[in-house]
From TrEMBL:
Stretches of the chain forming a coiled coil according to its record: none
InterPro entries, per the entry: Non-func_TypeII_TA_Antitoxin, Ribbon_hlx_hlx
Top-rank taxon: Bacteria
Protein name (database record): Ribbon-helix-helix protein, CopG family
Length: 79
């Protein structure tokens, strides 16, 4: 593992300490879990955006009529 040092606001430090105490986990464990979840979510989102841009560049798009037809099919059309 690689060491990392950073400052956090006092209110976050207090919340982290309280959560660590209440859950029986270390503060390091909780920070690592939070970072892991954040990185997974952000990485997934960026990959989805990249995939969408590749589809757009390849011309794989739907017309407004096709999109509207799907919205109507799914019961989400404008009323």
């Amino acid at each position: 593992m690689s060491p990392m040092s950073f400052l956090i606001p006092d209110d976050m430090a207090e919340s982290l300490s309280r959560l660590a105490r209440d859950t029986g986990h270390s503060e390091s464990f909780l920070v690592l879990e939070a970072m892991r979840e954040y990185l997974q979510r952000e990485s997934w989102q960026i990959e989805e955006i990249k995939d969408s841009l590749r589809e757009l560049e390849a011309g794989n798009t739907a017309s407004a009529e096709e999109v509207n037809a799907l919205w109507e099919k799914w019961g989400k059309g404008a009323n």
